[in-house]
Amino acid sequence: MTGEALDILYSDEHLVVVDKPAGLLVHRSPIARRETRFALQIVRDQLGRRVYPAHRLDKPTSGALLFGLCPESAARLSGLFAGGEVEKAYLAVVRGVAAEHGVIDHPLAERPEKLRDPREGEPRRAITEYRRLAAVELPFAVGRYPTSRYSLVEARPRTGRRHQLRRHFKHVFHPIVGDTKYGEGRHNRFFREDLASSRMLLAAVEISFDHPFTGRRVSVTAPLSAGFRTVIDRLGWSGSVPSRWLARGEFGATIDSENGP
Questions:
Q1: Catalytic: 58?
Q2: Out of 36, 149, 205, 224, which residue is the most buried by the measure of CB atoms under 10 Å away?
Q3: What is the distance between the terminal CA atoms of the chain, rounded to a whole angstrom?
């Protein structure tokens, strides 16, 4: 990100995918009245036209963010998300040694139980698939344990519930490092003070979907930010991450010419 502009990962006459940095809201929110910068306004000013968000990324999450360039495009894209037809890949650093592969099938309400309005109905099914890419044990004592263990995971949500990955990994006792809402303060503090990482270590590194107008498969990569890459380097994990998710400056998209007209 340079100045007020966001990196454009892919664009055509119907849609645009940008790289949202951690700490930036997608659009205005009544619960964040003091915020003055939003991805929607930045991209609108950058392109000189209105844009329409097709989905959302939490403020502390970085990575690929998709906008439609007209209401119809946004509606079609949102329909793909609602129908589970968008493939999303995330990288996250979590506490503990996660299983090599796993599926978290745990229902989630729109909001956590203590904040939920009974009128919102029952929790809805939520599914996350993940695999462990790497793990490390560090000489950092927390509680009665003399060392601390962390894992790098690739996560693929199969549903789109609010804070799904953050809540799911908390549910299986592997909270995401740097998550001030669902994570653990002692581990967050260690990464902040010893690894100079003050952000939540969750990034949307890839998004794939069938183009809503051409039918062709579009796959867009959003390589990790410098700060996230530094953490991975310091933990010795660089060789465990697909190169396309590390090569800053080489981001882009692939279009499957065999699909569609």
A1: yes
A2: 205
A3: 35
